[in-house]
Structure formats: C-alpha cells, structure tokens
C-alpha cells in the first residue's frame, strides 16, 4: 500500500503544485505540534462524544422552535409536534443513555486501543485531491461494510436481540438517537470506521475528516427532518433521513447507512413516499409498515417489541 508521502509525490510529478496544499500544510503543522495531546488515550472517545452532542444541537433548536412555529413541522417526516417538556425529556433521557455507554464501554475500549496503537505523523499534509479522494473512499467502504453488518444483524435472531434491538427502540428517530444503541453495536461501528480508514491507508488528516463527516451523516439520517438543504437533496446518491426513517418504521430494508446503491443492487431498497409521508403525519409509512412487516421474514419483525 502506498504511503501518503508517496501519493503526494506522485501528484506533484504530474504537475500538482504545492500551492494548493499551503492551507492544509499549515493546519497539519499546527496539529503535529500538539502530538502529545493528540495521542492521549482518552481524546478519541471524549472528542467523538462532544462532537456528536455539538452537531445534534441545531436539531434540538429545531425541535424547540417547532413547538412555537408550526411551519417547521412541515419538514418533519413522520411525527407531529409535541409539547416542549416532552421533547426535552426525550433528549435528556437519550443523552444519559449515550453518556453512560460511552463512559463504561467506548472510553475504556478506545483508551486500550490508543495505548497499543503507534500513530504516524508524516511531515507532509495531503493535497486537496488526495484528501477528498481518501474521504470518499472511506465513506464508500464504510457504507459497504455497514450494509453487510446491518443486514446480518437483522437476519440472525440472536444478533438482533443482543446487539441491534436497543437501537430500534427509537421507531421515530431524532438526531441524538444516531448513537443510541447497545454498547456492542457502538463498538462494532467504531471498528468498521477504523477498518475503513486503515484499508484505504488514509493520511491522519483525511481520517479525522472522515470521522467528522461520518458523525454528521449519521446524525442527519436520524434527525427526523426532510430539510431542503439536506445532503440527499443536493446529491441524490445519498438516502438521507427519509431513507433511514423508513427502515425504523418497517424494521427491514434500507440497510445501508448513507448511499442507496447497495439496497438497490441487493433488492432491499424501500421506496418511500416522502411528500405524502410528511404532509399526512406519516400515515403512508405506517400503512406500509403494517402491510409489509407482517409478511416479512426479517427476524426483527417478530423479535422487536418496540
């Protein structure tokens, strides 16, 4: 596997000037100067938790505003507005569930991993082309690995009950529920993300951007809003919140986390009437769930008690 320095040299040999790397190089030099802090065994878990909460906060504002400004509720996928107190209680309960799992599972596991890991801090930053290519490659690989793992959890009864069922307690999702899962599932997603970056052979800067984007996409998928500026509106290859909300309603299909192509190719794609489901309070999706889940051979159709 080519190292990042070799790839940068290859690009330079083909006429890619170093001028387009000045900004990235300055950023990378600043990060390398903080190597001792960045290699702290507790940093990855703490950073992941706080970034998740920070990126969820705009959707909490949306939830609160929806209690007073009905127009916002037009963009809800399948849930009517609720009293502010009930909304805040759901968020607080979910926050503590995630916090406890991070404290008892993710933090010790990531600290152990960091203590045996030997991180490499190359001198050169990646070029913009390499950075973008590596992030896209990581997203595509993670999407494929997650699809296989997610499909397997839904098809194997004991895996569903022991690992994945906790996530499906949220039939109606909101942003914070992106990481409201069992400790085993949270660990497995961390492993898939780290494996994707390792297989691609990312520069550390590319890997950091991949993890940030991965967190944001998971939050957007669970946010419960079909917003006009959402990524799936700009790039139709992404499924977005309607795509994943359908999975939580029906308990099957739409297994890929971000892109649509694996579900199309494997015959697990659920076509969601997004406009009808939004304008009629989710009745279309509920009818689809009643029709399809009863006849489904997916183990979660019988096992889930949510």
TrEMBL record:
Protein's GO biological process: lipid biosynthetic process
Keywords in alphabetical order: Membrane, Transmembrane, Transmembrane helix
Entry annotated with the keyword Transport: no
Molecular function as annotated in GO: iron ion binding; oxidoreductase activity
Domain Fatty acid hydroxylase per the UniProt entry, residue ranges: 136-268
GO CC terms: membrane
Transmembrane segments: 42-69, 98-116, 128-152
One Pfam family recorded for the sequence: FA_hydroxylase
InterPro entries associated with the record: Fatty_acid_hydroxylase (IPR006694), Sterol_Desaturase_Related (IPR050307)
Top-level taxon: Eukaryota
Subcellular compartments: Membrane
The protein's name: Cholesterol 25-hydroxylase-like protein
Organism, as annotated: Salvelinus namaycush
Lineage: Eukaryota, Metazoa, Chordata, Craniata, Vertebrata
Designated gene of the protein: LOC120062780
């Amino acid at each position: 596997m080519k190292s990042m320095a070799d790839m940068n040299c290859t690009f330079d040999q083909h006429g890619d000037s170093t001028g387009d790397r000045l900004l990235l190089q300055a950023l990378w030099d600043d990060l390398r100067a903080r190597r001792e802090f960045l290699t702290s065994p507790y940093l990855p878990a703490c950073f992941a938790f706080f970034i998740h909460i920070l990126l969820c906060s705009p959707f909490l504002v949306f939830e609160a505003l929806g209690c007073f400004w009905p127009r916002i509720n037009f963009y809800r996928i399948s849930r009517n507005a609720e009293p502010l107190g009930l909304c805040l209680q759901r968020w607080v309960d979910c926050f503590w569930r995630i916090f406890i799992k991070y404290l008892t599972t993710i933090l010790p596991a990531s600290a152990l991993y960091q203590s045996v890991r030997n991180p490499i801090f190359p001198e050169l930053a990646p070029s913009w082309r390499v950075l973008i290519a590596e992030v896209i490659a990581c997203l595509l690989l993670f999407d494929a690995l997650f699809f296989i793992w997610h499909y397997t959890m839904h098809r194997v009864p004991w895996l569903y009950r022991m690992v994945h069922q906790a996530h499906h307690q949220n039939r109606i999702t909101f942003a914070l529920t992106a990481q409201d899962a069992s400790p085993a599932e949270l660990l497995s997603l961390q492993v898939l993300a780290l494996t994707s970056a390792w297989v691609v052979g990312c520069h550390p800067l590319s890997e950091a951007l991949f993890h940030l984007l991965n967190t944001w996409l998971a939050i957007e998928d669970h946010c419960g809003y079909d917003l006009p500026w959402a990524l799936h509106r700009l790039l139709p290859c992404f499924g977005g919140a309607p795509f994943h909300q359908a999975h939580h309603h029906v308990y099957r299909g739409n297994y890929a986390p971000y892109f649509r192509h694996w579900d199309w190719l494997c015959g697990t794609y659920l076509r969601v009437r997004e406009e009808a489901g939004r304008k009629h309070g989710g009745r279309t999706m509920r009818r689809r769930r009643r029709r399809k889940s009863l006849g489904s051979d997916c183990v979660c159709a019988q096992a889930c008690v949510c």
